[in-house]
Amino acid sequence: MRLPLVVRFALREMRGGLRGFYVFIACIALGTGTIAAVNSLASGLGDSIRAEGQALLGGDIAFSLIHRRASEDELSFLEKAGRLTTVATLRAMARPPDGRQTLVEVKGVDDAYPLYGDLELRSGRPLAADFADAGEVIPVVVDASLLTTAGLSIGDEFGLGRLTVRVADVITREPDKLSGGIAFGPRVLMPIEALDASGLVATGSLVRWGYRIAGTDRPMSEAEIEATIAAAREAFPTAGWRIETRNEAAPQLRRSIDSFAQFLTLVGLTSLAVGGVGVANAVRAYLARKRTSIATFRSLGASRGFVVRLYLVQIMMLASIGVVAGLLLGAVGPPIAAFALRDFLPVSALFSIFPADLLLAAVYGLLTAVTFALWPLGRAYAIRPSALFRDDPAPVAGGGRIFLALTSVSAALLCGLAIAAAYDPLLALFYVLGAGAVFVVLRVIAGAIMAAARQLPRSRSVVVRLAVANIHRRGALTPTVTLSLGLSLTLLVTLALVDGNLRHTLTSSLPAEAPSFFFIDIQNEELDGFLQLLNDVAQGGDVRSQPMLRGRIVAINGVAAEDWPETEASWVLRGDRGITYAAELPADSRLVAGRWWPPEGAEGNEVSFAAGLAEELGVGVGDRLRVNVLGREVEATITNLRTVDWETLSINFVMVFSPNVFAGAPHAHLATLTFPEGGEDALELAVLKRVSEAYPTVTSIRVKEALEAVNGVISDLALAVRAAAGVTLLSAMLVLAGTLAASHRSRIYDAVILKTLGARRRVLLEAYSLEYALLGLASAVFGVLAGTAGAVAITVGLMDLSFVFLPVSAIGAVVVAVVVTVGLGLVGTWRALNEAPAAVLRDL
């Protein structure tokens, strides 16, 4: 079977090699590979979570309660459902012998733990063996980080609550670590029966009780899981427990992976979009070299359509090479990345070939190639047979409305695919609109730069005149450099400013506004003495306290919380929240709707709701909330909305109830200590020592250390994000290199003519350097302005934070743009300046 004529001619045309298309192929491969690798990595991690769901959750089903243990009837029901293990988690203060205090995450476990997976210890011994060595001092196993921060070794003892415990071993792998949520300290694993003796479990203490169930002799089937959950809800409709299954293990991790994968996919698309400029340049340069061939085809009777199909087939063949290279990168990249990051990934990633992810990346790559190649192909459509008798290096006009329409259709398909395949289509839509707007604005700016250069008064300096003329001449580098560098720098500046503002919010506002300490699990009988101790130790400090319970919204106006429409504030409905009661409006709040209950007490059950969250959830004054607290469901009416400034980090609650709602309910208290000018380390450590000695069961959280830990996580994440976004800068550099290569012929032509007329190499080098520096500076200015606008939209619009412009990021963008543009420009220019005039003139 013979190949179609257009394919045979395309193959013959490609016998000349890939000269001029290496950048084309690299741009397609880079963008395609990024998308393929990111999606494959996300799929691999998702499969790992599903495969390890039982170990991550700690069972086939997990029932969790806050503040209270399961009742005898509830426990009896759970024991009959299958193998049962009970786990209790809470935060406490570890007190080493040297007096240092360390916040730790305590987990009490029974003999059946873990039901799935393996708890691995440094000694290789089973947990039961370590716990069996108990004497007068309770043995515990700990994270290695506790040994470092507290200066402990195996065999050393430290205080925990009212107990003295001994480090028996070190945890190397905890199978269900993710089920406990975010950890603010190292793990301490201890026998669950020792918790009562520690004094850490008391009325109202912030303890989460988990009851994990597994099949008796095999994993539970899906039908058995559903039946058990239905029976539990029917038998104990107001228990207030949170129920999760192995299929829902680590939901926050799943959401984080999906969100991160979507962001990196958008980075890949940005890389493809930037690379698309390189595609257009490569096609334009290739067709310029093929002017004579195209004119010959036309002279021999080939139609315009045949010529366009011929070169489109060639371009798609070359694009396929880039796509295949990208798919290979996408297939082998995730296992390599997982191996390199194995100490940071929360699960052992399972990897295989994911055809759907690779196919999606391939379609992205091919659509990008078509979208950016069609308009330059219009120039092949416009070449006439008379071009055989001319040798003009200037570009040919495009193909008019037909190719504009085809390019628009292809671009629409590419955008539609990006939106349809996105985890969050709305975010993808905003990205597409934003990227399109940036493209248009950059093209307009490039035109404005050229127009402004054209109107500048004639300079006396030859260098300046040549540089300015090159900026506005026909076929100038201005549009390409502005598009490629401007788009990539916009992304990098946006990310840098968002990262900087997050860290600025966490650190700069701390001394003036945030408390120095949070103290939790203060019992009613301890409250007066505890507050007096704080006032004595921290004279001049602002001491505040508030009753604290944990509750979960189960219904709004009779509609179950899980059935309420999804919004940005739906996190309020997903789990238990801290709640309180108060007779008076909190000092840092003001009413924006409704009325506060009178001092003598509310007539019924009333609740005040945070105004911003109420607006996002779609609730307001008069709506009714049903909240489960300590296994008791309470219904209250929203009688007012109040402002809450979360950035101050002071005591704030989503819901504040009238005092009558929880009259007599067991609970603990939360307290804060704020130093007016920010506390010195020595004073804060003294407070920490006195509190832990006098009240060993109270958990002290030093805000400065907690924020430093969060800041470290944000810094690591931001570094990873910016490294990934650096792919776009690499694409811009490839595009710039390709543009210089594409303009090499015209640069040689110009250099030879100028040298023939007496121009010296130094003058030409200075002129080209000035041209590239001006273009890089213009791109950087736009990148800074557009990136700042994007960062403002994200920090103020999405994160509801204040924005501060950070000049270091802007200066960095300017330096990067100028260095990249001038550096790559001079590399290409040097070759043009080395051409001998005689050799070039003979070929004119």
Automatic annotation (TrEMBL):
* Keywords noted in UniProt: Cell membrane, Membrane, Transmembrane, Transmembrane helix
What membrane topology is annotated for this entry? Multi-pass membrane protein
Q: Where is the protein situated, by its record's location annotation?
A: Cell membrane
Q: Tell me which stretches of the chain form a coiled coil.
A: none
Question: Which stretches make up the MacB-like periplasmic core domain?
Answer: 25-198
| ABC3 transporter permease C-terminal domain residues | 267-382, 724-836
InterPro entries per the record? Answer: ABC3_permease_C, MacB_PCD, Membrane_comp_ABC_pdt
> Is this entry keyworded Phosphoprotein?
no
User: Could you tell me the superkingdom of the organism this chain comes from?
Assistant: Bacteria
Q: Membrane-crossing residues?
A: 21-42, 263-287, 308-341, 361-382, 402-423, 429-453, 474-498, 719-742, 770-798, 804-827
| Xref: Pfam families | FtsX, MacB_PCD
Q: A Gene Ontology CC term for this entry?
A: plasma membrane
Q: Does the keyword Membrane apply?
A: yes
- Matching PANTHER family, A to Z? INNER MEMBRANE PROTEIN, MEMBRANE COMPONENT OF PREDICTED ABC SUPERFAMILY METABOLITE UPTAKE TRANSPORTER
User: What name does UniProt use for this protein?
Assistant: FtsX-like permease family protein
**Gene source species:** Acuticoccus mangrovi
Q: What is the lineage of its organism?
A: Bacteria, Pseudomonadati, Pseudomonadota, Alphaproteobacteria, Hyphomicrobiales
